[in-house]
Amino acid sequence: MHYLDYAATAPVPASVADAVYRAMTGDPYNPSAQYDAAGNTRRALQENRTVLADALGCEARSVVFTSCATESNNWALRAAAYHGRHTGKHIITTAVEHSAVLEVLRAMEQEGYEITRLMPDASGAVSAQQVARALRPDTVLVSMMLVNNETGAVFPVADVARLLKARQSPALLHCDAVQGFMKVPCPMQAWGVDLASFSAHKLGGPKGIGALYVAPHLKTLRPLLWGGGQENGLRSGTEATAQIAGFAAAVSLWRENGAAYLANISALKAECLRRLLTIPGMARIGQGESPHILSMTLSGYPAGNIVTELGQQGVCISAGSACHKGKPSHVIAAMGLSRRDAAGAFRVSFGPESTLRDVEALYEALRAHQQNRFPML
């Protein structure tokens, strides 16, 4: 099997699975229990929270655990809008956010919020200047992802944070940092981001656990869940201690080996691009700067067919949402690609376990597909 779909999810390393197992089979206590025996569980929870906080360059109390990044995004957007309810109902985002952001905002639009969606240029980039032009006195929220999950474009989140501060805007800044965490710098507190969403399974952690960074000054953030007061009263419910242990273990692996991981990933991405561009009809989509995501098109060859055929040969890539019922994804559509280029769009993404053999297998499979199949009319 040649797995090249790390932007979708990452395999779980043995050491991460071991951390989950130890947490599940060790102390059985509820971390909120008051008896002494639960102390180790509470301490482990705090230590794991600190691992994430250290990776983000923030205080441990700013890390709130959730069930996934979709939950983090939903909560952040709703809470930020409620925070600014006396200021206005205008929200700025980009047209190429993940659906976990866009669908929430679409629902909020039906509730009376006005949404400005910034369009990317042909390379997939969105600028801080676009935010500056869209910013209004009644803007309560700017939501911008760190790395686009389809193109790998890195967005100017730090620049937007500086812009909002310079303009003395009351708007909060939310960042969906799922694809960028541990792959590109994201010191959210130093940048001045107010809310940021994260997921474990993109790093080799378990599925079903995410986190929300909440800036220290947001002491009145609207809770997601009311109940027993866990997570500093922001998200009640017994913490998923085993999944949290796995999240922390995955982050620790990246902190220890990240330089080597990224050097290998970047080299493989460059070599993959070089080889694929030798295939007739192949072109790169955008100029994604992230080290792990490469967006390509085999112009005129339906991406859904490519992904299916390669999967049957044991090569796993993704058309992502770029091939949904025969229509281009919202990201591809926003970039203004031609119909033929949009139809052939696919994503290759790399991780710590990726090898040159994976790239070679992808190249050979795509070359054979191009030689043996007719493009669409």
Characterization of this structure:
This protein has helices at residues 14-25, 39-56, 69-83, 99-110, 128-134, 157-166, 188-191, 241-276, 303-312, 330-335, 339-343, 356-372, and strands spanning 2-3, 63-66, 90-94, 114-118, 139-143, 172-176, 195-199, 210-214, 282-284, 293-298, 315-316, 345-349. The protein has 377 residues and is an alpha/beta fold. Helix 6 (157-166) links the parallel strand 5 and strand 6. The two termini are 32 Å apart. Helix 3 (69-83) packs parallel to helix 4 and helix 8 (241-276) packs across helix 12 (356-372). The protein folds into two domains: 2-8 and 258-372, Aspartate Aminotransferase, domain 1 (Alpha-Beta Complex); 14-253, Type I PLP-dependent aspartate aminotransferase-like (Major domain) (Aspartate Aminotransferase, domain 2). The protein is built from twelve helices and twelve strands. The strands form three sheets. It has a seven-stranded mixed beta sheet, with helices on both faces. A three-stranded antiparallel beta sheet has the order 9-10-12. Strands 1-11 form a two-stranded parallel sheet. 40% of the residues lie in helices and 14% in strands. The radius of gyration is 21 Å and the shape is globular.
